[in-house]
Structure formats: structure tokens, C-alpha cells
Specification:
Layout (H helix, E strand, L loop, with lengths): L26 E8 L12 E8 L12 E8 L12 E8 L12 E8 L12 E8 L12 E8 L30 H4 L6 H10 L7
Parallel strand pairs: 1-2, 2-3, 3-4, 4-5, 5-6, 6-7
Length: 211
């Protein structure tokens, strides 16, 4: 599936993340940030536009209502970051750790997660359109009552992920691995799986499979 990638300038001036505190709108734009560290803090309504962030640490930070357009994160530590009610468009998360990251009630469009740890992440009540999860660890991730449109799960670990109240119609998880999923039979209608996965689902639904 093709998605729109971040529209980033070929060359971006380097700046410090702390510059965000000097802008009354908490805006960072047209810049590159490297080796930043901002943990256990709170900044609501952060705005990032045309920004590349590398090797930075934002653990346990509250970024509620974050607004990101044309942003790339590379090799970042963002575990337990709160991005509730975020607007995230044309954004890439590459080779990063986002364990326990929270995206509930958010809008994600043209977003790519590539080689990312997203265990225990929460996407409840969010809208995801044109989102790619490639080689992502999604154990115990929560996709409760999400709206999916053009979503790709490629070679992901989905073990014990929850898709309750979320339709998987048209979603292909045949390249993914899992032992159990939290999902109902109605939500599975139209989901694309391999035959051995169908046997797993049958077992989850309480069916007894005979050889």
C-alpha cells in the first residue's frame, strides 16, 4: 500500500527542543532536532511541522492534543508518551520505542510505524486511515472501537492485541504472528488470514478442531 510520506525539506537547520518553550503556541517547524531529552513533563497542544527528530528521549511525557504534520522520528525513545486526541498526519516512526504510548481519540493519516516497539499501546476510539505497521511489536495493544481505512499490518507480532468493537473487514494479517487475539466473530468478517491462523481463530471461538 502506498501512503503519502512526510514532505520534508532536503536540508533543515538544527535546533534544540527547548525552543518550543519560547513560542507561545508551542510550535516547532522547519528544523532538525538531535539527542534531545524531555521526560516526565507536560506540554499540551504541541505543534510540529516539517521536523525531523533523531535519537531523542521523551519518556513519560504528556503531549495531549499534539498536532504533527510532516514529521519523522528516528531511533527515539517515546515509551509511555500520552498523545490523546492527537492529530498525526504524514508522520513516520522509525526504529523507535513507543511501549505504552497512548493515542486514544486521535486521528492518524498517512502514518508509518517501521521496526517499532508498540507493546501496550492504546489507540481506543481513534480513526486510522492509510497507516502502515511494518515489523512492529504490538503485543497487548488496544484498538478498541477504532475506525480502520486502508490499514496494513506487515510481519507484526499481534499477540493478545485487542480489536474489540473494531471491524477487521479487508484487513490482511496473514503475515503476522499471534497466539491469541481479543476479537469477536462479527469483527473478523472479511479479515484476511492464512489457513493455520483460521484454525487459531476457530479455537479462540471455542470450536474443537478434529484431525
Amino acid at each position: 500500500m502506498k501512503i503519502d510520506t512526510p514532505k520534508l525539506a532536503m536540508s533543515l537547520p538544527k535546533t534544540r527542543f527547548e525552543e518550543i518553550f519560547y513560542d507561545e503556541d508551542h510550535l516547532l517547524e522547519n528544523c532538525e532536532i538531535t539527542d534531545a531529552e524531555f521526560t516526565d513533563g507536560i506540554i499540551e497542544r504541541v505543534k510540529l511541522d516539517n521536523v525531523v527528530i533523531k535519537r531523542s528521549k521523551f519518556t513519560n511525557t504528556d503531549f495531549q492534543r499534539i498536532d504533527m504534520t510532516d514529521v519523522r522520528f528516528e531511533n527515539c525513545e517515546m515509551s509511555n508518551v500520552n498523545m490523546t486526541k492527537g492529530s498525526i498526519h504524514r508522520v513516520e516512526f522509525l526504529n523507535s520505542k513507543l511501549v505504552g504510548c497512548q493515542f486514544p481519540e486521535s486521528s492518524l493519516g498517512n502514518v508509518r510505524f517501521d521496526n517499532v516497539q508498540l507493546e501496550l499501546a492504546g489507540f481506543g476510539n481513534s480513526k486510522l486511515e492509510k497507516v502502515i505497521f511494518n515489523e512492529v511489536l504490538l503485543q497487548n495493544a488496544d484498538f478498541y472501537d477504532c475506525k480502520f481505512k486502508k490499514i496494513e499490518f506487515s510481519k507484526c507480532n499481534l499477540n493478545e492485541a485487542s480489536f474489540e468493537q473494531t471491524s477487521l473487514k479487508g484487513i490482511d494479517i496473514s503475515s503476522c504472528e499471534f497466539e491469541t487475539l481479543q476479537v469477536s466473530i462479527n469483527e473478523l468478517k472479511g479479515c484476511k488470514v492464512f489457513s493455520y491462523q483460521a484454525v487459531q481463530f476457530a479455537s479462540l471461538l471455542g470450536l474443537v478442531i478434529k484431525d
